Amino acid sequence: MKQFINQKEDMVTEAIDGTIAASGGKLTRLDGYPHIKVVVRSDWDKSKVALVSGGGSGHEPAHAGFVGAGMLTAAVCGDVFASPSVDAVLAGILAVTGPAGCLLIVKNYTGDRLNFGLAAERARAFGHKVSMVIVDDDVALPDLPQARGLAGTLFVHKIAGAMAENGAMLEDCTLAAERVIKNSRSIGMSLDTCTVPGSPKEDRIPEGMVELGLGIHGEAGVEQVTSSGAKDAIAKVVQKLAATMADAPHAVLINNLGAASVLEMSILTNDLLASSIGGRIALVIGPSAMMTALDMHGFSVSVVEMTSDDAGLLSQAVDVAGWPGCHPRAPLTVLPLPDGLSPIRAPASPHPATAAFLTMCCEVLIASEDHLNVLDAKSGDGDTGSTLASAARALMGAMDTLPLADHTQLYRAIGLELSQTMGGSSGVLLAIFFAAAGDASASGQSMRSALQSGLERMRHVGGANPGDRTMVDALIPALEALDDGLAHAATAARKGADYTATLTSAKAGRATYINAEQLDGHVDPGAEAVARLFENLAS
Fold first, then answer.
1. DSSP conformation letters of 334-374
2. Which of 90, 345, 398, 493 is deepest in the core (most CB within 10 A)?
3. Distance between CA 342 and CA 247 in Å, rounded?
């Protein structure tokens, strides 16, 4: 099983019940499972215009996650990627519509248009005032007469919902919804397809490519284009959006299609706000998962040109689980470091031989990045190579600022540099190692003795001992053999590193959480880094 579900046929009803159970009593549902799946505000008294939306499930938190004061009154849920039935939509309309009437907000898909449209006709036959708007915000195919409805639908939910909450008439809510739809634009991009429960995953996007202009039901994108990072992805999306945007203030909604990490979404947001349309963005919604496509590893960007009233309506507080809030675009402000954290550095002093030596060490670590990451993935979190390579790149970038001609100050400067640029426990331990080596060197100790003093201090703070399956297993024998030359030190380091592959339990670091079978036969990545460093120095 690749998904946390029970029975495929029960997944939507169980998800709805879970959403209701976690709502603190704010949500309820109509009877009629499994064919009628309608989530409703518990506090609804039919005194204002009702807003009803919905569609196929698999887009969570849309649409049940937007039911609540200030947005939807009811959400009509179909099965995964399937429109709800006419009876389900009609049940939702009849359950929430009073004298003020009801606004149906429908995404532009044939099934949704037909089922919501026929339900609206039947509700009108009962004497209810019902209007319906169709959202068609997708700009992937600008010449398509029937554009799809995407995450821009949420602009309609929010603006019309705020108006209804404030007591606006049905006609005014409908006109505003139609205006917002006219001014909304969306486009999506994904690295991978989604996984529909009970169906094999389609593998149609080659390595190094992305799909641009995709829908929210797993359908193929308009085109496959090369993928070269977040900035390039945003540039491709912005190119499509910019051609349709007026030179006016816009709100932007940055939507996670399901499987992009929070880290990725934040990077995409940063690149979007720095893009060519960044100057037109006044309000930001997200980044957040708002209208997903199950577990699709992608994102969509929606923009809406705002009137003078829209900013207030978009920013008005709501009581729903799925809305992440709307915030004004603000300039980046940077505070100075507190006193004591701005480092006092020794003056730079050139020394070509030392610079060449350090550069070679850094290049070894950079070249080993992928191999060390693979090793670390077997016993940790897979980032040892990247952590060491990042520190090496930073050290190379700071080479001209280091006191290369004064080894005592150089040890301290390296320790300071690592404490600022190298993450995790490794960065702290190596910073301690070099700082202590600097102190020992200042007291007159030889290079080997100074490095051994640094190692002892690092072991004391970190708690690692020989046999604990850490870099110490390679570093101790290497330093002990250093007086006999680099070749002997390299041999000792390699022997110590290979020894770690025979250790099936670790007593320090993240490998302590790994079972014996996973550790057996795999060299500790920190020890491997030490061995590779000495081997390259010896050669």
1. -PPPPTTTS--PPPPB--HHHHHHHHHHHHHHHHTHHHHHH
2. 493
3. 43
**Could you tell me the strand order of the sheet in which 38-41 lies?**
27-29, 38-41, 74-80, 50-57, 102-107, 130-135
Express each pLDDT in 46-63 by its tens digit.
Answer: 999 999 999 999 999 999
H/E stretch holding 430 reads helix 424-442
List Cβ neighbours of 311 (8 Å cut-off, separation of 6 or more). Answer: 249, 251, 282, 283
328 SS3 class? strand
Tokens of 48: 């204002």
Beta strands in 81-164 (DSSP E): 102-107, 130-135
Residues of the chain predicted below pLDDT 70: 1, 341-344, 379-381, 423-424, 504-521
Q: Which of 116, 138, 106 is nearest to 255 (CA)?
A: 138
**Using CA atoms, how far apart are residues 157 and 30, in angstroms rounded to an integer?**
21
> Alpha carbon of 280 to those of 54, 73, 242, 287: distances in Å?
31, 32, 10, 18
**Residue listed under structure tokens 């670790």:** 506
CA distances in angstroms from 129 to 120, 126, 150, 175, 369, listed in the order given: 9, 9, 26, 15, 65
The H or E element containing residue 79 is: strand 74-80
Sketch the domain layout of the chain as residue ranges.
8-328, 352-538
**CA-wise closest residue to 36 among 90, 82, 80:** 90
Is omega for the bond preceding 197 within 30 degrees of 0, making it cis?
A: no
Q: What is the percent of the chain where pLDDT is above 70?
A: 95
Determine contact, residues 79/336, Cβ cutoff 8 Å: no
* DSSP code, position 227: -
Comparing CA positions, the residue from 175, 93, 185 lying closest to residue 138 is 185
**Spatial CA neighbour of 66 closest among 180, 188, 151, 168:** 151
As a whole number of angstroms, the distance between CA 425 and CA 463 comes to 12
Question: 8-328 belongs to which homologous superfamily?
Answer: Dihydroxyacetone kinase; domain 1 (3.40.50.10440)
pTM: 0.78
Q: Which two tokens stand for residue 417?
A: 């540099």
| Catalytic site residue from 59, 63, 217, 522 | 217
pLDDT, tens digit (0-9, with 9 covering 90-100), for 151-169: 999 999 999 999 999 999 9
CB 150 within 8 A of CB 137: yes
The predicted pLDDT at position 341 comes to 65
Is-catalytic flag, 217?
yes
One-letter amino acid of 86: V
Three-class DSSP category at 284: strand
What is the rounded CA–CA span in Å between residue 506 and residue 525?
A: 13
Which residues are within 8 A (CB) of 74 and not within 5 positions of it... i.e. 6 or more apart?
Answer: 38, 39, 40, 41, 50, 51, 52, 54, 67, 92, 95, 96
